[in-house]
Amino acid sequence: MSEQVFGSRKEDESQLYGETEIHESGRTEKEISTFYLWFASNLTIADFALGFLPIEFGMSITSSIIALAIGNIAGGILLALMSTMGPKAGFPQMIIGMKPMGRLPGRIMSVLQWSNTGGWLTVNIVIASLALTTAFSGLNYILSIALSVVVVAIAAFLGGKAIHRFERIMSFVLGIMFAFVTIFSLSKMNVLASYSPSHVLPEYAAFGTTVAVSFSYIMSWSPYASDYSRYISSRKSGRKVFAYTFIGGAVASFWLEAAGLLVAIISGRPSGNPAGDLNSILGGFGVIGMLALFLGGLSANSLNLYSNSVSLKAVGVKMKRTTLVVIVSIIVMALAIIGYVTFYDFYETFLLILDYWITPWIGVVAADFFIANRGKKFSLSSIVPVNRTGVASYIVAILVSVPFMNPPVNFIGPIAQLLGGVDISYFVSFGVAVLLYTGLSKRHESN
């Protein structure tokens, strides 16, 4: 079943896929490079802002920390699993994902990933630019956008290896800056000790929602993972790639969310603008916090822009990747300039909804790579136009998870409603996809 082909026309593989394999001679990165990459890219304002949510829900500090830890551990595991595919396959993540879905459905997934990366790219540019103008009040907003886009475009233009080097530097720079923010926040122990949770939501609902949100953020990096780990030799340790990716991503994400939690408490009544709240509590040191948020946005966006161009190549766009980087940069800069006041609020909601496509896709890809085809070398020739096993598993997983959804729109699934609004659809869709794809694959083999 998994090998059924729709259409008999044989196409030249070079015309089907825009990204070629990184051969062993070009795989010069070490396993620890994944630590630096995911550590730096998760020291961002998006993680920082997530730390404000438990306080808005009225949770205690202890339950907030536990919920954030659980979400980041679970999401970090998925990111690390996907990262281990890169050295073994040598291809970008979305092309690896075409094997269990088929070329045509895989291109649809690549379009979703292109939207995902483009959206976060725009959101981060807007927020990073606001942080920069807050730090330097005389700086023109349009100029700060242009500066943000240019720096990110240069890194993405130079390619994956340049991004590895950039993120290695940023991991130290951002680590030092956010260490200062954290130490400063912890120095306000008298304020933290006097905090009293307001229990805006029932404790179980607030706890479950915090787990789901923190999980969904870090796991949403998964469609990027092999874009960067493919620069590591297949002879290197897959366990080390897993460990370094997990530690880098989960630790950074948890750290920034915990820092956001502290700032939310110290600021008293969060204004809804995490950057502004951080600036206000740091006083004369506010410029350090704003620069940290700005540089964190650049760090994350280097990955967003590079993977955005890789996703377009996977769709079948024939332009050079460097040309696509320039075109997308211009589009993003225009969107950020036109809609900086309200655009990112709307788009962040859209992106949170869009994230629903990721976990069942991860489930199908992971089941194919680690269970159904364990030990088999990935090759482009194994990709068929449509793989019915993967498509069926994906669609069923999405449908089964709908009753568990509680997206930020005027809809709540019946089971989510029974759970007090807690959205566990990510976990449901992932589990269903893994089980269904594995079962259908084994049934096909037995036939």
CATH fold name = Hydantoin permease
Q: Strand pairing plus helix content: what structural class? A: mainly alpha
- Which consecutive residue ranges, at least 5 long each, have pLDDT under 50? 1-15
Oligomer: single chain
User: How far is it from the N-terminal to the C-terminal residue, by CA?
Assistant: 9 Å
* CATH architecture descriptor text: Orthogonal Bundle
In angstroms, what is the radius of gyration? 21 Å
Describe the protein:
With 447 residues, the protein is mostly helical. The protein has a single domain (17-339), classed as Hydantoin permease (Orthogonal Bundle), CATH 1.10.4160. It contains 23 helices and no strands. The chain has helices at residues 13-16, 33-41, 45-50, 53-57, 61-83, 85-89, 93-96, 98-101, 103-135, 141-158, 160-186, 189-193, 203-219, 225-229, 238-266, 274-282, 286-315, 321-338, 343-354, 358-372, 388-401, 414-418, 425-446. Helix 9 (103-135) packs across helix 18 (321-338) and helix 10 runs antiparallel to helix 18 (321-338). The radius of gyration is 21 Å and the shape is globular.
Features:
447 residues, mainly alpha, Hydantoin permease, 0% strand, disordered N terminus
Describe the structure in brief.
By secondary structure, this protein is mainly alpha-helical. It has helices at 13-16, 33-41, 45-50, 53-57, 61-83, 85-89, 93-96, 98-101, 103-135, 141-158, 160-186, 189-193, 203-219, 225-229, 238-266, 274-282, 286-315, 321-338, 343-354, 358-372, 388-401, 414-418, 425-446.
